[in-house]
Specification:
Blueprint (H helix, E strand, L loop, with lengths): L14 H9 L7 E5 L2 H11 L3 E7 L4 E7 L10 H7 L14 H4 L3 H15 E3 L5 E5 L2 H13 L3 E14 L2 E13 L3
Antiparallel strand pairs: 1-3, 2-3, 4-5, 5-7, 6-7
Helix pairs in contact: 1-5
């Protein structure tokens, strides 16, 4: 099928940046994006423009970017925490994250940018060209499937898996949902 034909709409946060935030689980009191590639954080910095600072820190396995408004007090852009609060995405546990309805009703190009942001932070592709998104939020995975369908693609949900992480000599597991994605182009 073809993608839905819709016009660009005014969105509170650029689609790529919101996708990177959602994929990074970064919706607590500070807005933090975690990415394997530093280029993702440079893209967010470019996307946000001069109204925001993106403090990039590199570690062995990943890089993080903490986003804050730039400028003086009288001329500040709205903080991303305020914009996330307006979208009801602030201070919720990662397993409850979702894609706001306004972004699901955006234009094809805006939806693709949202998808790019999500995939750049919680996506994976292999040599055969298969794309998968992994997240602890079942609702986000369901919303992502809706997004893919609206782009004329195919989305297949896989059985939940347990993803293991190591933190300070302890390993713990959490339920992780997977979505296999195929797009025409």
């Amino acid at each position: 099928t073809e993608a839905e034909a819709k016009e660009d709409i005014e969105l509170p946060i650029s689609p790529y940046t919101l996708g990177a935030i959602l994929g990074s689980y970064g919706t607590r009191n500070i807005v933090k994006i975690v990415a394997l590639e530093k280029s993702v954080l440079h893209r967010v910095r470019q996307d946000l423009g001069e109204n925001y600072n993106v403090d990039i820190r590199s570690y062995e396995s990943c890089s993080t970017g903490i986003i804050t408004p730039a400028g003086d007090i009288d001329n500040k852009a709205p903080s991303l925490t305020k914009l996330l609060q307006d979208l009801e995405l602030l201070n919720i546990a990662p397993k409850y994250l979702f894609i706001p309805e306004i972004y699901l009703n955006a234009s094809r190009d805006q939806k693709l940018e949202l998808l790019r942001g999500i995939m750049d932070t919680c996506g994976y592709s292999n040599r055969m060209g298969n794309f998968n998104a992994y997240h602890t939020s079942q609702r986000l995975i369901n919303d992502l499937a809706t997004l893919i369908y609206s782009l004329g693609g195919i989305a297949t949900k896989k059985m939940p898996q347990i993803r293991y992480r190591s933190l300070e000599d302890r390993t713990y597991g959490e339920r992780c949902y997977c979505l296999s994605i195929k797009l025409k182009d």
